[in-house]
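sanity check both lines:
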Amino acid sequence: MSWWGLRTAMVVAACGGLAGCSSEPAQQAIAGTVELDGRPVKTGHIRFAPFDSRTSSAEVFIKDGKYTAKLMTGSYKVEIYSPRAKGKPAKRIPGPGADADEFDESIPARYNIKTVLKADIVKEKKEYHFTLDSK
């Protein structure tokens, strides 16, 4: 192998072990809790929508008030949803799913479709907790 070939192979091998050589930024693993009026949100989902257009959004499930996600570092708008069945069938046209229950949203709109929540994901922070109130 020539000197240049050996040198190139060494540089490629060195970059393979370093995150800084990657053209793609690494994802940050985060976790947290979601409470409504002091109680864990039993089921639902949380959506992280980036303020920039270069990063993808992420949506993960909430179970027993807890969630985990992988996100790129940056600023995100946060939307939290927890639909609940009303206990009566929805009025739908006949066909598959026509007998499904009607649902309403248990989380106030200021935390989902009109959200005021945001999260700044940084490497140094691994936990993001959301304490919501229905008042």
Notes: The chain has one domain: 26-132. Residues 3-20 have pLDDT under 50 and may be disordered. The beta strands are 28-36, 39-40, 43-50, 58-63, 66-71, 74-81, 83-89, 101-105, 117-121, 130-132. Residues 3-16 form the longest helix (14 residues).
